[in-house]
Amino acid sequence: MEKPQIILHADVSLNYTVFDTKWIPVSTKFISLGTHPKGDGAFQIYEISGGKVQLVSEITKPRGLKCGTFGASALHQRHLATGDFEGNLQVWDMEALDSPIYDVRGHTQIINAIDGVGGLGIGAGAPEI
């Protein structure tokens, strides 16, 4: 039986703790979510070009980000739902990250994981987070 291998394609040094990464649907970009040592949120967008990882955009949020999903968003919308360390659930338009398009206190404490369904339009039912 062969042992599993981890193959490194690219690496990037970061000044924060990464808690989640997601591919942006239908693109060569991905996001990285995490928390800086002082507690504010790290939200970075990267693109893979020519075999290298390039930082496209970097936004600092007031609270550390723990998790994210594109699951409840249609592919053409690319809305990212995030959960933070204070229990807030926010939905972001990837084209306008200044402020969330939806913001609610989802829990009294940290949102450790988040998932969504219905964004792809497969089956029945409305998008849910």
What does this structure look like?
This protein has 129 residues and is mainly beta. Helices cover 0% and strands 42% of the residues. It contains no helices and 8 strands. The chain has a 4-stranded antiparallel sheet with strand order 1-2-3-4, with no helix packed on it. It has a 4-stranded antiparallel sheet with strand order 5-6-7-8, with no helix packed on it. Strand 7 (88-93) and strand 8 (102-105) form a beta hairpin. The model has no long low-confidence stretch (mean pLDDT 89). This is WD repeat-containing protein 92.
Question: Using DSSP, what is the number of strands?
Answer: 8
Rounded to the nearest angstrom, the distance between the terminal CA atoms is 40 Å
Low-pLDDT runs: none
The portion of residues forming beta strands comes to 35-45%
- Count up the helices: 0
Write a brief structural summary.
It comes from Trichonephila inaurata madagascariensis. The chain has no helices and eight strands.
